[in-house]
Amino acid sequence: MEIKRATFKCSSQQLSQIPRDTLPDIAFIGRSNVGKSSLINLLTGHGSLAKVSGTPGKTRLINHFLIDDRWYLVDLPGYGYARVSKSERGEFSKLITDYVFRSEKMHFLFVLVDSRLEPQAIDLRFIRLLGEHGIPFGIVFTKTDKLSRNQLESSAARYKKQLLTEWEELPPLFFASSAKRTGREEILAFIDKCLKD
Ligand code: GDP
């Protein structure tokens, strides 16, 4: 699948503001700085789509981008952001949990993790919640250009080991580098399949 047209639709600060039509949402989430905006720009082939709405102050909103009049690519706020106020912190903001666990539009969620890091506790806690709620999700390892093939394999193996201590099955795993422009086709093909199911 290729994306021909990607346009910014809206930013929402609460669930009631997300688009009300029936087009499916495919969403992206991860810790701040994981490479989410870069990946969104890589997937859409649009140099600055995610940055447009990713200006300070808007980063904690849900951004919907309309893709080929067929589906929405949804940029969720980063979690684990050190500078949010205590009242907002919870573990995951109300906006995130409302959307991820209550929105009926969301067809699939990509959780981005930094391939260079050990499995992070906050990512594992988020993934555990997804499993408990039966949310369809996959994991994207980002910034893979920073690792050798062996290092990447060990990094993925550490995640798999962690996940298999809790779950019998692994979610789909993807490997991406926005710098090297890799991983794009696999992710887009997967999205295409999701939209057809
Ligand atoms: P976000 O906060 O999750 O949206 O992350 P950004 O896309 O803004 O990226 C955060 C930082 O990581 C920036 O300095 C990017 O240049 C860098 N970055 C993002 N993706 C990659 C990648 O694939 N490879 C490398 N080497 N750096 C990346």
TrEMBL record:
<keyword id="KW-0131">Cell cycle</keyword>
<dbReference type="InterPro" id="IPR027417">
    <property type="entry name" value="P-loop_NTPase"/>
</dbReference>
<dbReference type="InterPro" id="IPR030393">
    <property type="entry name" value="G_ENGB_dom"/>
</dbReference>
<dbReference type="GO" id="GO:0046872">
    <property type="term" value="F:metal ion binding"/>
</dbReference>
<dbReference type="Pfam" id="PF01926">
    <property type="entry name" value="MMR_HSR1"/>
</dbReference>
<keyword id="KW-0460">Magnesium</keyword>
<dbReference type="InterPro" id="IPR006073">
    <property type="entry name" value="GTP-bd"/>
</dbReference>
<keyword id="KW-0132">Cell division</keyword>
<keyword id="KW-0342">GTP-binding</keyword>
<comment type="function">
    <text>Necessary for normal cell division and for the maintenance of normal septation.</text>
</comment>
<keyword id="KW-0479">Metal-binding</keyword>
<dbReference type="GO" id="GO:0000917">
    <property type="term" value="P:division septum assembly"/>
</dbReference>
<protein>
    <recommendedName>
        <fullName>Probable GTP-binding protein EngB</fullName>
    </recommendedName>
</protein>
<comment type="similarity">
    <text>Belongs to the TRAFAC class TrmE-Era-EngA-EngB-Septin-like GTPase superfamily. EngB GTPase family.</text>
</comment>
<dbReference type="GO" id="GO:0005525">
    <property type="term" value="F:GTP binding"/>
</dbReference>
<keyword id="KW-0547">Nucleotide-binding</keyword>
<keyword id="KW-0717">Septation</keyword>
<dbReference type="InterPro" id="IPR019987">
    <property type="entry name" value="GTP-bd_ribosome_bio_YsxC"/>
</dbReference>
